[in-house]
Structures are given as C-alpha cells and as structure tokens.
Amino acid sequence: MSRLVVVSNRTSDPRKTAAGGLAVALRESLEQTGGVWFGWSGKLREMVDGGTVDQNDLHVHTTGNVTLATFDLSPEDHDTYYLGYSNGVLWPVCHYRLDLANFDTRFAKGYRRVNQLFARKLLTLLKPDDIIWVHDYHLIPLAAELRSAGCNNRIGFFLHIPMPPPLIMAAIPEHEWLMRSLFAYDLVGFQAESDVTHFTHYVESEARAVCLGPNHLRAFDRTLQVGAYPIGIDVDEFVRLAQAKEGRDMFARMREEYSRRRLLLGVDRLDYSKGLPHRIHAFRQLLERYPENRDSATLIQIASPSREDVGAYDDLRREMDSLCGAINGDFGELDWMPVRYIHRNVARKRLPGLYRASRVALVTPLRDGMNLVAKEFIAAQDPADPGMLVLSRFAGAAEQLKEALLVNPYDTQGTADAIQRALVMPLAERIDRHSALLNRVREQDVHWWSRTFLKALAEVEPVLAQMS
Predict the structure, then answer these.
(1) Is 364 helix (H, G, I), strand (E, B) or coil?
(2) Where are the beta strands (DSSP E) in 100-153?
(3) DSSP for 183-241?
(4) If exposure means fewest CB atoms within 10 Å of the residue's CB, which of 68, 217, 393, 460 is most exposed?
(5) Nearest 5°: CA angle at 185, between 182 and 186?
(6) pLDDT score for 388
C-alpha cells in the first residue's frame, strides 16, 4: 500500500483530539497507510542584527506510524505568502470580497517563493510510490513546483474554500498562472458542485478548455480530473463528546439557566465571510416583526477571534459590538438580554451540549466553502425533540442539507421569517427534517470524504510529464 503524504499550511498531531477540521479528517487515512504530514511549523525564524537566522533543517517528530515534518518561515515570507497573498488576496477574492483584496505584487512573489520552498523541502522526504494530498489555497502552485523538480508521484489537491465565478477569479492579476498550476495535479477536489461549475466555466472561457467527459478537462496541454467531495464530520466522535461529562454539564446548565427562554445559537469565527452583522439585523427584525419573541428568545452568538492583525476584522468587531449593544439597549429587560455576544473561543468539548440545548442554529454565512458547524449541530440534537437549522444557501453545506431552512442572508427580513418558522415548527416536522439531515451527515461523514477522494486519486491516470 502506498504511503500517504499530506501537505497543508499548518499541521496537527492526528492522534490527538483536535478542534475539528483537517486533523480529524486525515487521522484514519494517515494511520492506515503510515505517512507524513508536512507543513509550516507556525513559527518564524529568529531575528538577529536585522536579519533572520538561517534554519534550513526540518523539525521531524514521529507519532506512531505518522511523521510530522515542519519548517519555520522568515518574517518576510510570512508577511507576503501568508498574510499578504493567502489571506489578503485569495481569501477575500474566493469569498467574493474584491473590495478587501490587496493586489500588491510583492505578495504574489512571496507566495510563489514559499511554495517553491515547500517543494524543495518536501522532495527530501518523498518515496517514489508516495501519494501526495495537498490542501487549500495556500498551496495552489505546489504541484507545479514539484513537477518542475522532477516529481512524478500522484498528487491530489483539495480546495477547502469556495471557488469564485470566472469574472471574480479573473480579477486576480495572476489568475491565469494560478489556474494553470492546478493542471499539474492529477485530481482537484472541491467542496460543492457549484465550485466545480465555476472552475469548469473559468477554464472553458479563459483557457479554452475542452470537456472530455464527466469531470475531465483538457487545457494547458494537460488533462485534469475534478470533482465535488464535500467534507464531513466524525459523527461518532462528536456524539461521544456530547455524552461526555463536559457536554452533559453544558446541556444541563443551559437548560436550567434558560428554562423560560428559547435559545438561538451562532458559532463562528469573527470573519467578514460569516455574515454576522446581517444575522444580527435579522434577529432585530425577528423581535420587531414577531414581538411574541421578546422576553422569550435569546441569541447566543459566539464569534471566536480571527486574524485580528487585519484592519477589516477590527472594523467588524466594532460593528458587532455596536449592533449587539443596540439590540440589548432597545429591547432588553432587567431579567432578559436578547443577545449574548461572546468574542472568545469556547472549548470544543462544551459545544455539543450548547448545540443540543438550542432550539435554532443560525448558520448564515455570506459565502462559505462548507461550514461544519451546521453538521455538528445536526449530530448533537435529540432525535425525539430536535432543534432546527437555519442555513445560508451560500454555504457549501446547503447542497447536502436541503431539509434545513435555507435562506438568503442578505435578505434580513426573509431570514427573520425563517427563524420564526423554525421557532414555531411542529414537532413532527422537526423530527422528519432532522432524520433526513442526520442520515445524510452520517452517510457522507469525514471518513467517507477521505476514502472517496483518495480512491479517486488512486484510480486516476497520473500526470507524469513536467509542466510545459
């Protein structure tokens, strides 16, 4: 069996209980085959007399049959590759926020330089029959750099964030180079069918790609297989968290403290893609249009700190502080606070109890690759009396979770109406909807995701020639 080599911007010990995400997704695959997880250490090289200490060595740590290999970045590489291009160009553009993108040419140069650095260091670890799985927008050109150095391994890529429509992608000055780089992979996976459609339309319009059949595209003298592989959660692990002491204690505390209230819940990073101000406006409209919810419904909004060194996030935090304070001032009573706004991290082991105590979950991003909070909420519910999910149609999860109440988050009045519908929905309808949602979350869980992608990668005809 070929060894799996996972490459991502950051790594995590797959044997430890992780805060969701990639570590949980890849644990089973890495441990089955043995393998390597390679990426940035999260650390910067030390500064000495105005320069950086030259540290070319990899940090290698073996846990069981999995090797974690990392390296440090220089402050300049971190500023250009990570803050500048990954988070200052690709993140806003892929979330349709061209107004927040900074197309400084230094960032693109740093992005390519660090991907070349990734390739050079990774090559020292590879075996001829390794299967390489590259993750996310930080490393789009990595396969092209590996191919140019003579790497003939099978290489797959998965984009965890949305693929924007062609005209939005074309706003990036280096868009043609980025999309050409994807054709150095053997298989490119996306979260949703809409992402596959956007990518296909891009290469058809910009590169005159030819469709050779379902999910096979020919462009740049290469043939690429693409597909939608929606990432899931580890349902059984999440249920175990719900049944553990911390989860049960949180559920009991919430039920006792809010015995006369109905809880609405939002759990997000503080990010402009999550639609948090729109959500607060929708909650205000709920209280205005349906006054029976006053002194009855409470919104708990958790907004974990995110990229606080970026100016746009400072603005968002101030806006959230203002909006939540205004609602509490306008509608609050001595014994009722409409919004409980929490700007800090909440331990993952406590979340299942919080989900289970909530009547409605609000997952209403303006754009999201998938959004696993929606799936976690479904998994945590009591099947005999489940809460209801209000979900943005612009989240990748909406393609799978059609029994949720799908909303346009820009339409705050429509979102308010959907929240009201969720609050008054009869038990029988809630049970039917939840049953269908839970079945799908279980069928297409995180293990299904990794197995399906890696099976497709193992079967695809590999790219062996160097990029032209």
Answers:
(1) coil
(2) 131-135
(3) TTSSEEEESSHHHHHHHHHHHHHHS--EEEETTEEEETTEEEEEEE------HHHHHHH
(4) 393
(5) 135
(6) 98
Segment (H or E) for 60 = strand 59-63
Domains of the chain plus CATH, in order, are 4-232+447-459 (3.40.50.2000), 235-443 (3.40.50.2000)
3-class SS of residue 43: strand
Helix (H, G, I), strand (E, B) or coil at 365: coil
Query: Which class for 153: exposed (0-12), middle (13-18), buried (19 or more C-beta within 10 A)?
Result: buried
* 109 token code pair: 């140069």
Count of all residues that appear for the chain in the document: 468
Three-class SS state of 379 = helix
Per-residue buried b or exposed e for 15-46, using 16+ beta carbons within 10 Å of the residue's own CB:
eeebebbbbbbbbebbbebebbbbbbbeebbe
What is residue 237's predicted lDDT score, i.e. its pLDDT?
87
Q: Are 264 and 300 in contact (CB under 8 A)?
A: yes
pLDDT at 132 over 90: yes
Which residue type occupies 104? Answer: D
CA distance 302 to 354: 11
The pTM (predicted TM-score) of the whole model is 0.94
d(CA 457, CA 187): 6
Residue 409 pLDDT > 70:
yes
Would you place residue 49 in the very low, low, confident or very high pLDDT band (cuts 50, 70, 90)?
low
Contacts of 86 (CB under 8 A, 6+ apart): 9, 111, 137, 138
Residues serving a catalytic function are: 160, 368
- Start-to-end CA distance of the chain, whole Å, equals 31
